[in-house]
Amino acid sequence: MRSSLSLSLLSVLCGFAPLVQSATVTYNFNISWVYANPDGEYVRPTIGINGQWPLPAITANVGDQVVVNVNNQLGNQTTSLHFHGLYQNGTNDMDGPAGATQCPIPIGGSFTYTFSINQTGTYWYHSHAHGQYPDGLRGALIINDPNSPHKEDYDEEIVLTLSDWYHDSMIDLLASFVNIADPTGAEPVPDSALMNDTQNISVSVQPGKTYMFRIINLGAFAGHYLWFEDHTMSIVEVDGIYTEKADADMLYITAAQRYSVLVTMKNSTSTNFAFVSSMDQDVFDPTRTPDGLNPNVTSWLVYDKSKSLPDPAMLDMFDPFDDFTLVPQDRMKLYDKVDHSITLNFRMGDLENGFN
User: Which residues lie across from 112 on neighbouring strands?
Assistant: First the structure.
C-alpha cells in the first residue's frame, strides 16, 4: 500500500515538473586537407572538415549527448579530437589526446566520440596529435545554458575566435623547434594574427542592443590583448565558469583561454568603431620573428554600412584587466590553507639530438 501511494505521488509530482528535453547532437566530420589563405599573404595546405575551412562550431545544450563521427581522410597523418575544457567525467576515453587516452585515428580510419554535456559555457575542440591543430584543425565548442544567470542581460550572441597563424606546416615547425640548431628552445613565431580565422571582419550591430561575445583564443602560442574602442566589456564567464559582472576596457587572453563579455552598443549610429586584437610580442624570440610582422588584427562594430571604417587609435601601452580580481558567480571561496606543500624543480636541458 505504501509503495503504491509513493508511486502515485511521484506521478503527480512529475506531472507538474517542467519538461527538460535533452537531445542527441550528431556531427559527421570528414577530416582532410584543403587550401586556405586567411591572412591574404600565403596560400597553404590547411586541415579542413567536410572539405571546408574555417571549421564548423560544435553547439549543444547542457544535458545533451554529443556524438562526433570522425573519418581521417588526411592521407599522410593520423589524428584525433580533444574537447578543450570538458572534464569528461566517466568518459575519459573520449578526451582525445593520442597516445594517452586513445590510439590515434589511423589514415583512412574512423572513430566515434560520444559524451554527455554537463557543463555550460565557452569551449573549443582541436586535434591532439602531432601538434596538428595550428594547421587548422580547431573550432569553437559552445554549450548553451537555458538557466544562465545572465540570459536576460543580452540580446544576441557572437562567437569571436582569436589566433596566431603560421605559413609553415607544423611538421616543419616542429622539426626546426626540436633541433640542435635551436639550443635555447625558442618557439617559432607566427606570421600573422587572425579573428574568426580571417582578418578585417565587420560585425553589424544595432544601437542600444547588448551583445554577448564568446571569445576564444584557439591559437598555438601567442596571448592576445583585446579591446573594443570606446566600448566597455562586462565579463560574465571565464573558461566555463560564470562570474559576477566586472567591467574591463582590455583583456589579455592566453592560448586556449575563453571569456564571455557583454558589450552594449551606443544609441547613435553616427560612427563605426574598431576593435583590435594584438599578439603579445614579449614572448617572441627576436631571432625567429618574421620581418615586418604585424601583430595586430582589426575588425569593426558597424553601426552604419554607409559610413567609413576608421583606423584604430594608437596605444601607448597595454593595460589589461586583472583577472585575479574576478569573483565566481557561485561565490566559492579560495582555499585558505595548505596541508602539504610539494616543490618540483625543473631544468631545461638539451640532448645531443636537440630535444629539450
Answer: 69
Beta strand extents in 103-257 (DSSP E only): 110-116, 121-126, 138-144, 156-165, 192-195, 202-204, 210-217, 224-228, 233-238, 241-248, 251-253
pLDDT higher than 50, residue 11: no
Residue 192: what residue type? S
Q: Specify the 3-state DSSP secondary structure of 217.
A: strand
pLDDT tier at 94, thresholds 50, 70, 90: very high
- Quote the pTM value: 0.91
Query: Residue with C-alpha cell 606546416?
Result: 169
Q: What is the mean pLDDT of residues 250-260?
A: 98
Pairing relationship of beta strands 210-217 and 258-264 according to DSSP bridges: antiparallel
Distance of alpha carbon 258 from alpha carbon 124, whole angstroms? 9
Q: How far apart are CA 62 and CA 72, in angstroms?
A: 28
